[in-house]
Amino acid sequence: IHCAFWRDRLYMVTIRTENQSNFTALRDEVFRLFGKGLRVDQASEKYLWTAVPNDMMLQCSKDGQQGLLWLRSSEIDRQLKLSKISSQASYLKWIRSGK
Fold first, then answer.
1. How far apart are CA 88 and CA 93, in angstroms?
2. Which parts of 1-99 fold into alpha helices (H)?
3. Cα within 13 Å of Cα(82), Cβ side
4. Given this model, what pLDDT does residue 22 score?
5. What pLDDT is stored for residue 21 in this prediction?
6. Which whole-number Å values give the CA distances from 7 to 19, 45, 62, 80, 82, in the listed order?
7. pLDDT < 70 stretches in the chain
8. Coil, strand, or helix at residue 16?
9. Which listed site, 11, 13, 38, 64, has its alpha carbon 20 to 30 Å from 80?
10. Predicted local distance difference test score (pLDDT) of residue 53
């Protein structure tokens, strides 16, 4: 389990599994808690949930030996992206000012 923070707030959680039985247990619990989500790849197990306040993705490797679940705060993601745009715009203004 890995956690990522932005400005001292929990931004993202990633959970990795090894072997098919662990992925199946994780998948079953995620489905129980959040519903089945949108299956985006019929050839493999990859599901998406896009709802406020969180985005989620669950997927299993093609060989079935590794699984991944990530959950991300939609609001913090929006703030992070806006801060990058704002800082880039400020930098461009600074360059144009000749300072």
1. 9
2. 20-34, 74-97
3. 6
4. 96
5. 95
6. 35, 33, 36, 9, 14
7. 52, 86-99
8. strand
9. 38
10. 74
DSSP code for 36: -
For tokens 């745009």, what's the residue?
85
Residue 94: its pLDDT value, please? 58
- Contact present, 23 and 64 (Cβ < 8 Å): yes
The SS3 call for residue 7 is: coil
pLDDT at residue 99, as a whole number: 54
CB atoms near residue 69 (< 10 Å)? 20
Tokens, residue 26: 């994780």
Who's near 83: CB < 8 A, 6+ residues apart? none
What does each C-alpha distance from 24 to 9, 37, 70, 71, 83 come to in angstroms? 30, 15, 16, 18, 38
